[in-house]
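Entry for the shared binder. Reason: the reviewer on the internal report wants the predicted structure included alongside the sequence.
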Amino acid sequence: MHDLRRLLSAEWSKMWTGRAWWSMALIGVLMGALAGSGYVTEADKDIAKGATTIEGVTDQVVRSWFMMLLFSALLGAIFVSREYQSGAIGRSVLLSGGRGRLLTAKLLVGLAMGAVFGALTVALAAASPSVFLPQAQLEPAWTHETTLTLIGVFVVTTLGAPWGVLLGWIIRNQAATVATLLGLTLFVDEALLRLAPAVGKFTLTIAMSSVYRDGKPELLSVPAASLTIAAWLVAAGIAARALFHKRDVL
């Protein structure tokens, strides 16, 4: 147990080393702020036309912070893949006492860092309606649905980091892992939902949109989406473990 604590402490220190953590956090915060403020720009007109309500606008401003999950996932991916890029992965395996221990430690640290990103996102998302809506002479209307949306944003942001960690283990190359994450999140999953909704709703990113209550009629229910997310993470974990034990770490 003592050795595991030391290993987790060492991996936690690695997570905070370099520019990856703060650059991902900064970009995510900027994107969330731009999305929230941009949505409010036309909110008063949409409310006047009956296209939405002040409650709906409040929900959407909070929901706009979901994109932090992408930057949480990118941080998780970089956390693992940069060791392959630098050639340090072999040394990490030796110092950790085994491949299984190292994989577990990095996954736990990734999950913890995802929770840190999630906490930051929740704080900003909760404050954003009071910051952005007055700019359009509107007062926020916080409801139970808003609270559920906020919880969903925290959950997906937290889970984004271990998803990135697992993809980093599987792909091993930093550029390829980052490109895969961007492609899946921004293009492939959305395209599948539009072209084949029966298939697309079971992709990880789209299942996560059910959790932060995106509201599209074709989405899975929250319980079904939660099971889908768990299945993706378990499958990726099995693949990562199998490949990590079979491949050369050099």
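Summary line for the report: The two ends are 28 Å apart (CA to CA).
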